[in-house]
């Protein structure tokens, strides 16, 4: 006899409050898993276009009506807007007992949902550790994506099931650790974009016709090495203690792109500290290097 099929989680009606880059993609992913998007709210023209592209035929309605129609509601609004939204929905009686209320903020755990929990909602914090484009490619990128998950003990299985259904991997984050967790992601991902964009601008200034093609293999290898080896992957003039090269860098940046100097100096100091601590930078070379960086501050 064939074994009975594995039980599947209940199919849910899904609503999205805030049709930014994240919400429609997550709802589309849940739809692929068998859930049914029934309502979405959005104000800007871009939000309306995203909802139409990723959730065709799903009606655009005010937030209160999203909660009225959906058993699972994704609150995908900016971090600073989330507390006020939750309080407003709870105060107006829009929250229904037994309703799954999910926010996707990295900064907050489930305490921000306390007003809705007091109204009977079931609170979950599911933060996908990924940058979103607001297009269908995001749904594909969710495969294997880690989610920072915070949930009451009785809802841990439900949270895990939803993340897995979206193709993700749940990573449990304690409530008090959420701000640190989010700062770590921002430090790596957001600042990386700034560094890469600055690097491409400087290469164009230096006459490189295709800076993206030049940087792709280099940055890909650097990222892979860093993920595998941490500080042992440090290379370059700062880690080697080449004070003269670093001085030349600072002079050129000050001449061609003065807005990049402060960031270069800050990252060079941090790199030097880490290289010194891990025995990659010789102490006798570090003194000259740090002197050059101090002079760069005054330049």
UniProtKB/TrEMBL annotation:
Residues 145-270 form the DUF2520 domain. InterPro entries: 6-PGluconate_DH-like_C_sf, DUF2520, NAD(P)-bd_dom_sf, OxRdtase/DH_put_Rossmann_dom, TM1727-like_C_sf. Pfam families: DUF2520, Rossmann-like. Residues 7-128 form the Putative oxidoreductase/dehydrogenase Rossmann-like domain. Coiled coil: none annotated. Signal peptide: none annotated. PANTHER family: CONSERVED HYPOTHETICAL ALANINE AND LEUCINE RICH PROTEIN. This is Oxidoreductase. The lineage of its organism: Bacteria, Bacillati, Actinomycetota, Actinomycetes, Kitasatosporales.
């Amino acid at each position: 006899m064939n074994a009975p099929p594995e039980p599947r989680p209940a199919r849910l009606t899904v609503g999205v409050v805030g049709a930014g880059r994240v919400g429609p993609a997550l709802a589309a992913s849940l739809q692929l898993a068998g859930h049914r998007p029934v309502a979405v709210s959005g104000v800007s023209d871009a939000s309306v276009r995203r909802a139409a592209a990723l959730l065709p035929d799903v009606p655009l309605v005010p937030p209160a009506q999203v909660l009225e129609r959906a058993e699972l509601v994704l609150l995908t609004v900016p971090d600073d807007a989330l507390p006020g939204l939750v309080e407003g929905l709870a105060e107006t009686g829009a929250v229904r007992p037994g309703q799954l209320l999910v926010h996707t903020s990295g900064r907050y755990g489930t305490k921000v949902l306390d007003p809705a929990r007091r109204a009977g909602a079931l609170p979950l914090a599911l933060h996908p550790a990924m940058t979103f484009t607001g297009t269908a490619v995001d749904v594909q990128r969710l495969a294997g994506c880690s989610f920072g998950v915070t949930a009451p003990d009785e809802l841990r299985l439900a949270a895990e099931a939803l993340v897995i259904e979206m193709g993700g991997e749940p990573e449990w984050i304690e409530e008090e650790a959420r701000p640190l967790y989010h700062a770590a992601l921002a430090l790596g991902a957001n600042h990386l974009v700034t560094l890469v964009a600055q690097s491409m601008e400087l290469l164009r200034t230096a006459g490189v016709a295709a800076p993206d093609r030049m940087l792709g293999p280099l940055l890909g290898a650097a990222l892979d090495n860093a993920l595998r080896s941490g500080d042992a992957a440090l290379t370059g003039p700062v880690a080697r203690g080449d004070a003269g090269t670093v001085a030349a860098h600072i002079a050129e940046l000050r001449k061609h792109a003065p807005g990049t100097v402060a960031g270069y100096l800050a990252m060079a100091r941090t790199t030097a500290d880490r290289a010194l601590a891990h025995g990659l930078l010789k102490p006798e070379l570090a003194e000259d290097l740090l002197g050059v960086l101090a002079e760069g501050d005054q330049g």
